[in-house]
């Protein structure tokens, strides 16, 4: 019997509120450092067009167009603050990241992450001054447009006014991206420290109802019919495992990236079963990463000399590739590949997808496993299937 609560109800869809720590902290910090630097550099590249030589004549004409905010003084203040933040707050963040990179001691690395979180907090507070002006720009452009006389008269003066008008709207997206990046980084790094400190209680904080993701080889069918009280016997995120009480549960993840990567891998596994992905394809992927020889050696050590025309051994090679790849997520298949290939041969990659579901997180049977941010959920706790991603 289908669970009546686990039907699709699109109006309930919400973004997941659970925060995950960075998958690769050092890579995350390098990316953070680059994104913040690039953001401030982009803003300063706009300054010559917006402020020109420093004369307010262009802005006097700009004011005559009825776009009266922001004014020249606002933008002088804006770019002065950008240079200050680049010199002080950004430098502090870069120094803290460099400190973390230079330390071998876990104790001092943790201290460095704490310093970094504090520096990001200061930058977030100070970015409010940029955000206010950014919001004024957005509001002004919703109300006003340049009059025809500015665009029709081809004077140098008017061309400068047009330059200001076209350049100002580039500011809000950059400021918004900086603000979002800082807030996200603080949350992820704070969660990283929490997980390291509280090894016995690593379940992330969550709302009473959360958006979780279930990857299935029959996603479209489930989207239409809802979950059954009798859960499938497949293991892991793509199927089911036992809940906290020992009863069968549906396997979810709170990480959309993980769900999408499992979907990608399941599609490739079906294509292997059908003979559409072969040994040469996997070796081409490995060769692009520079790990082809490593994979062949590992496969030979694990399995010996096998008939690579058989899907089960192609799947074994594929699994070896996922274990050794630095670019691909590894779902960790713990199954009999011969049986898996036999079952998958009748499936279609088009039916594989991610179900976006609303789950009652108060259900006491829910079991959490940190490795894939996995939640094993009893069917009754799935309140709705909100959409399918394929």
Give your account of this protein's structure:
This protein has helices spanning about 25-50, 55-65, 70-85, 90-100, 105-145, 150, 155-165, 170-195, 220-225, 255-275, 280-290, 290-305, 310-325, 335-345; strands spanning about 210-215, 240, 250-255, 355-360, 365-370, 375, 380-390. It has about 400 residues and is of the alpha+beta class. It folds into 3 domains: about 1-20 and about 205-275 and about 345-390, no CATH class; about 25-195, Up-down Bundle (Four Helix Bundle (Hemerythrin (Met), subunit A)), CATH 1.20.120; about 275-345, no CATH class. The chain has a 4-stranded antiparallel β-sheet. A 3-stranded antiparallel β-sheet has the order 1-4-7. Strand 2 (about 240) and strand 3 form a beta hairpin. Helix 1 packs antiparallel against helix 3 and helix 12 (about 290-305) crosses helix 13 (about 310-325). The longest helix has about 40 residues, at about 105-145. Residues about 1-15 and about 235-240 have low confidence and may be disordered.
Describe what is shown at a glance.
The chain is of the alpha+beta class and 390 residues long. The chain has 14 helices and 7 strands. It has 3 domains: 1-18 and 204-274 and 346-390, no CATH class; 25-197, Four Helix Bundle (Hemerythrin (Met), subunit A) (Up-down Bundle); 275-344, no CATH class.
Order of SSEs, N→C? HHHHHHHHEHEEHHHHHEEEE
Tally of distinct domains: 3
What is the structural class? alpha+beta
Mean pLDDT: 82
- What is the annotated CATH architecture of the largest domain? Up-down Bundle
DSSP, total strands: 7
Termini distance? 26 Å
Number of separate helices: 14
Radius of gyration: 27 Å
CATH topology of the largest domain: Four Helix Bundle (Hemerythrin (Met), subunit A)
Strand percent estimate: 5-15%
Reading off the top of the CATH hierarchy, the class of the largest domain is best stated as Mainly Alpha
> How would a crystallographer describe the biggest sheet?
4 strands, antiparallel
Give the proportion of residues in helices: 55-70%
Q: Biggest sheet, strands in spatial order?
A: 2-3-6-5
Oligomeric grouping of the chains: single chain
């Amino acid at each position: 019997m289908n669970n009546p609560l686990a039907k699709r109800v699109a109006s309930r869809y919400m973004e997941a509120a659970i925060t995950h720590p960075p998958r690769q902290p050092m890579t995350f910090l390098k990316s953070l450092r680059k994104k913040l630097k690039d953001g401030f550099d982009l803003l300063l590249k706009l300054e010559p067009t917006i402020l020109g030589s420093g004369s307010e004549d262009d802005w006097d004409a700009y004011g005559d167009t009825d776009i009266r905010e922001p004014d020249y003084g606002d933008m002088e203040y804006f770019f002065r603050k950008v240079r200050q933040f680049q010199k002080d707050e950004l430098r502090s963040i870069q120094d803290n990241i460099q400190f973390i990179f230079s330390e071998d001691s876990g104790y001092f690395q943790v201290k460095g992450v704490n310093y970094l979180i504090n520096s990001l907090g200061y930058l977030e507070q100070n970015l409010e001054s940029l955000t206010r002006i950014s919001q004024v720009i957005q509001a002004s452009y919703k109300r006003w447009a340049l009059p025809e006389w500015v665009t029709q008269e081809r004077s140098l003066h008017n061309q400068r006014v047009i330059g200001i008008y076209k350049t100002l709207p580039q500011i809000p997206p950059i400021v918004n991206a900086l603000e979002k990046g800082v807030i996200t980084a603080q949350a992820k790094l704070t969660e990283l420290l929490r997980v390291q400190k509280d090894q016995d209680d690593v379940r992330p904080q969550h709302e009473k109802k959360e958006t979780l993701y279930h990857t299935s080889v029959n996603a479209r069918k489930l989207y239409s019919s809802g979950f059954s009280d009798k859960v499938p016997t497949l293991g892991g995120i793509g199927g089911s495992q036992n809940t906290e009480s020992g009863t069968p549960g549906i396997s979810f993840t709170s990480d959309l990236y993980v769900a999408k990567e499992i979907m990608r891998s399941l599609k490739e596994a079906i294509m292997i079963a059908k003979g559409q992905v072969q040994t040469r394809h996997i070796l081409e992927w490995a060769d692009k990463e520079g790990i082809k020889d490593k994979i062949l050696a590992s496969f030979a050590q694990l399995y010996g000399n096998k008939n690579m025309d058989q899907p089960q051994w192609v799947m074994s090679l594929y699994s070896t590739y996922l274990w050794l790849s630095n670019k691909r997520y590894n779902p960790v298949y713990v199954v009999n590949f011969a049986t898996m290939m036999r079952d998958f041969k009748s499936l279609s990659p088009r039916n594989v997808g991610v179900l976006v579901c609303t789950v009652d997180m108060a259900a006491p049977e829910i079991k959490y496993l940190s490795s894939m941010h996995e939640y094993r959920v009893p069917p009754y706790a799935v309140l709705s299937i909100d959409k399918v991603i394929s």
